[in-house]
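// run 5 | inverse folding | seed 20
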């Protein structure tokens, strides 16, 4: 039977006294996931406002959705369908938590000095319908976008990146826009078929056109992410 020396005891005591943590692997995926979720949650709030710009009918989140799709493209192109799906479901869960928090805040009794309870309830009370529209739209749009992009890449990895980006965008954006607009239209005050058609067409054309315009940005981000992630060791 061997005896522990004072040095061994010292090393054991010192080792046990140190807190242990799970190491974080370097990488950009968590940052893109967080950005994706933030854009998604904010969109659910700003989309509750109907917006008209000249003859165009849209909502207050029209400038955010192209950003979400660019992030989605980067996730799908660089990290694959499964990783993108995780980001989408994380966004869904975050949006549901936000809705619950809004309704708890509405339900709580207002202070005597607070004079905006009705406006607070009116604005945030619309969010659940918008969230339902976003959840359904994203479930169709983002998953279609990621699936089409990764499928095209798996079939022909040598094809130009712009073909995957635009092909997936057209399919994903149409599915997203159609489902979202059909559910969210009444929440923002759209009541006629012509306005609904306008809403769908404007949303689809705007989102697709914006991604086409921002294609050089997406190219550079994808190239930068691939270069950096390939260089960083897990």
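// decoded
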């Amino acid at each position: 039977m061997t005896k522990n020396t004072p040095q061994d005891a010292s090393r054991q005591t010192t080792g046990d006294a140190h807190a242990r943590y799970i190491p974080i692997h370097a990488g950009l995926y968590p940052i893109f996931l967080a950005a994706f979720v933030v854009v998604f949650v904010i969109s659910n709030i700003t989309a509750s406002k109907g917006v008209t710009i000249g003859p165009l009918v849209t909502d207050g989140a029209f400038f955010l959705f192209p950003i979400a799709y660019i992030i989605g493209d980067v996730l799908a192109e660089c990290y694959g369908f499964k990783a993108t799906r995780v980001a989408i479901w994380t966004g869904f869960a975050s949006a549901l938590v936000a809705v619950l928090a809004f309704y708890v805040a509405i339900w709580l009794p207002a202070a005597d000095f607070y004079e905006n309870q009705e406006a607070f309830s009116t604005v945030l009370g619309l969010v659940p319908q918008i969230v339902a529209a976003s959840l359904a739209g994203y479930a169709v749009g983002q998953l279609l976008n990621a699936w089409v992009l990764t499928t095209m890449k798996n079939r022909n990895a040598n094809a130009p990146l712009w073909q995957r980006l635009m092909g997936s965008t057209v399919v994903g954006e149409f599915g997203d826009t159609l489902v979202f607009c059909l559910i969210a239209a009444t929440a923002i005050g759209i009541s006629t078929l012509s306005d609904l058609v306008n809403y769908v067409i404007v949303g689809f054309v705007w989102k697709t056109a914006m991604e086409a315009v921002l294609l050089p940005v997406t190219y550079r981000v994808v190239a930068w992410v691939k270069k950096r992630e390939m260089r960083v060791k897990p």
